[in-house]
Amino acid sequence: MGLLSRLPQAETWPELERAAEQRFWDGLTLATAAERDETGAVYFLGYVVEILLKTAFFRERGLSRHVDTSSERRVARNYARVYGAPRNDHDLNYWLLVLERIRWVNRRPLHPALLGALRLRVGIIADNWSESLRYREAQPTMSELHDVFANVEWVFRRRRDLWR
Predict the structure, then answer these.
(1) Residue 128's domain spans which residues?
(2) For 96-110, what is each residue's pLDDT tens digit?
């Protein structure tokens, strides 16, 4: 029996939260290991923010903790289309826009200071990360790794503010 067969069938938002935390520690481990892997660290760390933004959207939509999030991705695409966004389902700026819009629709906008800082930090991460890194030979500089880590850590530490 393989790993995938042992995973839950449904992709729920609590499972996404746990995955984000696991990817954060995976990325930190790769960034700080004696045989550092900058590319792997950036790759995992970028997913942390993608997962957290998706989780915040699903929670804001009122999705039960036991419901699979797959169908909600279509809802997110519709929100983004209305506001002129999407590139793809991994685009960090896209997920931030979708989260902004759903919170605005629900009359629960993010605090302006949080939103401004979040836009800045997500933008920096997005300048250095894309899921397409899995297909590319890349070697982030130490400066790029630091930028990604510092900004991902900021989002990770404030993740609960995304759904309060």
Answers:
(1) 11-162
(2) 988 998 999 999 999
